[in-house]
Amino acid sequence: MSTAMDTESTYSGYSHYSGHSKKAHRQGRDRHKSPRSKDGSRSEKSVTIQTPPAEPLLGNDASRAEEAQDDNWGETTTAITGTSEHSISQEDIARISKDLEDSVGLDCKRYLGLTVAAVLGLLVFLTPIAFILLPQILWRDDLEPCGTVCEGLFISVAFKLLILLIGTWALFFRQPKADLPRVFVFRALLLVLIFLFVFSYWLFYGVRILDSKDTNYQGIVQYAVSLVDALLFIHYLAIVLLELRQLQPMFTVKVVRSTDGESRYYSLGHLSIQRAALVVLENYYRDFTVYNPALLTASKSRAAKHMAGLKVYNVDGNNASGQSRAMIAAAARRRDSSHNELYYEEADHERRVRKRRARLVVAVEEAFTHIKRLQAEEQQKAPGEMMDPREAAQAIFPSMARALQKYLRTTRQQQYHSMESILQHLSFCITNNMTPKAFLERYLNPGPTLQYDRDRWFSKQWTLVSEEAVTSGLQDGIVFVLKCLDFSLVVNVKKIPFIKLSEEFIDPKSHKFVLRLQSETSV
What we know:
The protein is an alpha+beta fold. It has 14 helices and seven strands.
C-alpha cells in the first residue's frame, strides 16, 4: 500500500515536471523519497499523525530549500501525506484515553462543587426569610402585634439581604478561568463555616422558637436580623481571605522556558502552589513570545552533526589506544572550528532577514500609498462603486504578498499566519486608518501567545509537577514545573528579603559653601 502511494505520488510529480526545471524535479523526487526511508524504520504498532495543511512542519533543510519554493501564496503550504515525525505508540494511546477519563472526572468534580455552592447559597438567602414567615404561617393568631420598630427591622433585613446578594454575586459568581487539580482550601473552609453557621441558627430556631411557639414576633425578627448581620461579616472575611491576603507581594518567582531559556520575573503574595501556577500561566500567555519550534531545528541538526563526527573503532579487538587518542584529538580540533560555522550561519541569516525586511517595508508602504490614492478617487464616484475595508485589503494584498511570504519563511513564522488572518489584520488596519508601520508590527516582532489564534498555540493543556502538595503555600526555595506537550516552564520561588531602612536627617542650614580663588582660575 505504501509502495503504491509512493508510486502514485512520484507519477504525479513526474507529470508536473513539464512546467518546471530539472532542479525542481530532483528536489521533488528527494522529497518523496524521504518519507519512504522513515517508514522503513517505524514500528508496526505506531500510529502516524498527519499534519494539517494550515500548519506545515519545518524540516531541518527548510532554510536551504526556501529559495527554490514557488512564490505563489496558495502553493507554498506543504501537506505531508506520507509519515510524520510526530507519532504515538499503543502506550501513548492508553495514556491519552486515561487522560480523557481524568478530564471527565474533573468536569464532574467542578460541576459538583458548583452545585453544592449554589444550593448552600440558596439556603443562606432563604433562611432569614423563612425565620420571619414561619411564625406568620404556623401560629399567626397567637403572635404579639408588630410595632414600628419591628416594621423598621423588615426594611433593614431587605436592604441587608440585597447588599449580601450583590456582594456574593461579585465575589463568587465568576466564570472560572481554569480547572485546578485540587480544591481551593480557603473557599472550602468558608463553605463549611457557612454551613455550620446556618445549621446552628436553624437548630436554635427549631428548639427555642418552633417547639415553644414563641409569641414575641419582634424578638423573632431581631433573631433573623442577627443572622443577616453575621452573614455580612462572613462575607467580609471571605473578601479578606480570597482577595486581600494575596495582594501584598511576598515572593519573587523566576519562570524559565525549557526550550529556549526565555525567562521572566513576577511578584506574588500568599498563594498556594496551584494558584501561583495559574498566575504564572496567565502572565505567560501575555508576556512570553510565542513558542516557535522551527527556530530550534537548526541548532539541533548542528549539534547532531558534530556528535556524529566523533567515531572510534577498535579493529579485531586490538588495543589501539594511541590511535584512538589521535582520532579523538582530531575530532576535537574539528569541533573547535564549529564556532566559525555558527558565526557565518548567523551572519548570513541576519543578512537575509535584513534584506527581506527592507523589501517588505517598501512593499507595504507602496501598497498603503496606493489604497489611499484609491480612496481619494473613489469619493468622486458613485456610492455603489466604493470599496469596503475587506475589498480594499484584497485589492492591495497581492502587491505585498510575495515580500511578506518570503520574510515569514526566513524568520520561520509562516505557521502562525494564514492568508485569512493576514487579510483580516489588513482590513482592520485600513478600517482604523493605521499606518504601514502599525500593520507590520505583528510580523516584524514575534508577539505573545495571545496575539495568535488558539488553533496555533502549542500549549493548551498543562500539567503541574511539584514535590510539595499543590494546596500548600509558597515557600522560599520551592521549585515546580508546568509541563505541556512540547516544552515546560520551570518556576523557582524566592522570598523577598526583609528590608531595613534607616533615616538620616540633614539640616538645610548646613548647605554653605566657600569660593576658593586661585591665580590659575578664570573666575
